């Protein structure tokens, strides 16, 4: 396939939290499908720049941008950086997210606020800033979670609430942006083997007990769904999304 016939050729994408885990897999996949890609990170400058270099070596434009999704200024910095590096923005992937486990009764205010700020406010402000640029036919894809719908265990009360908030955010915004032919969707992973939720971590045994399949998901399996929603075949999908959870919510 020539690069101009790839499904995302000519498209410009921003993936927040693209230095590691699911976000890095999404960035690689969008670039492989032909898009120019900017990623943001909070701390991992070396890893993020190495990924941008890898994408540039494949023939696409790429940029790594330091932008804290938990800070008000981080949202605008992410969008400004992506637009400056790529010349515009067609696809926004709100991926950056954090989880702070523990009993809700004892959860410090700082941890509650950090999760709300990155997982909810950051998504809202980044999306708002992106709307000044995203043209007709654009895509807004947010990474939610299967626990935004059903929560099979405790200890993730605030995290799951932040992911539930993204459900109605996605639905309402899809209705607002329908006339612009911009689609808005939520991808809801179950357990995926990353630094956030390692397949050999302390939670793994109990997590696996809730799945229909007997394994964790791979970041590439989430990236494939994001690429599909970003692509031309998904133009009639909006206000919904895809659950990729190994049957956790079956
Ligand atoms: P990781 O912890 O492995 O990676 C998180 C990524 O987000 C890193 O690139 C990190 O950057 C970035 N990030 C974290 N905080 C910020 C911030 N304040 N500003 C900018 N970037 C930030 O997470 P995953 O890949 O596992 O998760 C990605 C998304 O998928 C999250 O929204 C998560 O909630 C969701 N998800 C994950 C599941 C799982 O089982 N792994 C299941 C369901 C949903 P840096 O490297 O600089 O720290």
Fill in the keyword field for this structure.
binds NADPH dihydro-nicotinamide-adenine-dinucleotide phosphate; 7-stranded parallel β-sheet
Describe the structure.
The protein contains 7 helices and 7 strands; from the N terminus they run E-H-E-H-E-H-E-H-E-H-E-H-H-E. It is of the alpha/beta class and 250 residues long. The protein starts with 11 loop residues before the first strand and ends in a 6-residue tail after the last strand. The mean pLDDT is 97. The site of NADPH dihydro-nicotinamide-adenine-dinucleotide phosphate has 30 residues, from helix 1 and strand 2.
Chain-wise SSE layout:
Layout (H helix, E strand, L loop, with lengths): L11 E4 L5 H12 L3 E6 L3 H13 L4 E5 L5 H15 L4 E4 L14 H22 L8 E5 L13 H21 L5 E7 L14 H5 L10 H12 L10 E4 L6
Parallel strand pairs: 1-2, 1-4, 2-3, 4-5, 5-6, 6-7
Helix pairs in contact: 1-7, 3-4, 4-5
- Give the overall shape: globular
Our Rg estimate from Cα atoms comes to 17 Å
Indicate the CATH topology.
Rossmann fold
Helical percentage: 40-55%
Bound molecules: NADPH dihydro-nicotinamide-adenine-dinucleotide phosphate
End-to-end gap: 37 Å
How much of the residues is beta strand, in percent? Answer: 5-15%
Q: Please tell me the overall pLDDT.
A: 97
Number of domains: 1
With strands numbered from the N-terminus, the spatial order across the biggest sheet is 3-2-1-4-5-6-7
Q: What low-confidence regions span 5 or more consecutive residues with pLDDT below 50?
A: none
